[in-house]
Amino acid sequence: MNDPGRSGPAIDLSTDLCGIPLAGPVLNGSGTFDALAARKAFGDELLNDFPFAGFVSKTITVEPRAGNPPHRLWETPSGMINSIGLPNPGLSAFCERDLGPLTELGVPLIVSVMADSAPGFAELVEAVGGRDGVSGIELNVSCPNVHSGLIVGEQPDEITALLESLRGLTDLPLIVKLTPNVANPELIAAAAEAAGADAVSLINTIKATAIDPDSNRSWLGAGGGGLSGPAVRPVALAQVRAVSAAVSIPVVGMGGVTDGSSALEFILAGARVVAVGTENFRDPRAGQVVRDGLEEALHRRGFSSLAEAQASTLS
């Protein structure tokens, strides 16, 4: 995008994520942008200027999930608690109905999957990994809204066992989505790397709840959910910094990315690319805003290239 107010030459934002070529370093957080609904609303115009350099699908499970009972959302200062609970059509319906259109978005597709057992993950990885148009697989072991995710995501030995059971099932990159709800996420990340993960992403939402001021009971139907948005950014930056120092595989940074400046903070903390989540609910073009603002932020902080910033991580 040409901006007459921007100083300096245009910066090449192209990069890659564990071998997946990307036109820029901005992805979406899983489940925060409904690309199929957006295309129905805006037609192929959406494809002409898609807001993300790569698209991460809503998390898919083997069987269909209705999600958690209402209420599911609660607004907080500088953030949001969600207790959506991963509603999705299940593996078969996803492959038959949704996967094809998602491969037409014009950007690399990463499919997010979750199960409550290693065999369940294996079924998902084998099915998704064998389909044309899929560039990578995100292993969601960190959702605070479903009990099964945290069993795997909190223990290094469980991560090791899971990755060892999946690594031989596909040649596609495996990206492990880490939970922030542990004392030392870098230990989980290191275990994932040692067992064959190609990248890690963090942070997922932080466990939280909200009290209804009228009933004096939990507002959320499931009793609790996950906090996201700018309120969690300092926590996310600290965890991204710790994890990136502990592993050599790429890190996807997320947690309160709202503009180019906050995206650059994650890159300086060690993330190779960033993902926009909660901000998509406020502005469907948030990915484009972050992408365009990142170039300005790089100029402002004295970087001549994205690669220079990626190499200039905090000590």
In short:
It contains 12 helices and 14 strands.
SSE string, helix = H, strand = E? Answer: EEEHHEEEHEHEHHEHEEEHEHEHHH
Helix content: 25-40%
Uncertain stretches: 1-5, 145-151
Question: In which order are the strands of the major sheet placed?
Answer: 3-14-13-10-9-8-7-4
The overall strand count is 14
What amount of the residues lies in strands?
15-25%
Total count of helical runs of at least 4 residues: 12
User: Which CATH class applies here?
Assistant: Alpha Beta
When the domains are counted, the total is 1
The major sheet is characterized as: 8 strands, parallel
CATH fold name: TIM Barrel
Please name the CATH architecture.
Alpha-Beta Barrel
How far apart are the termini?
33 Å
Content-based structural category: alpha/beta
Tell me the radius of gyration.
19 Å
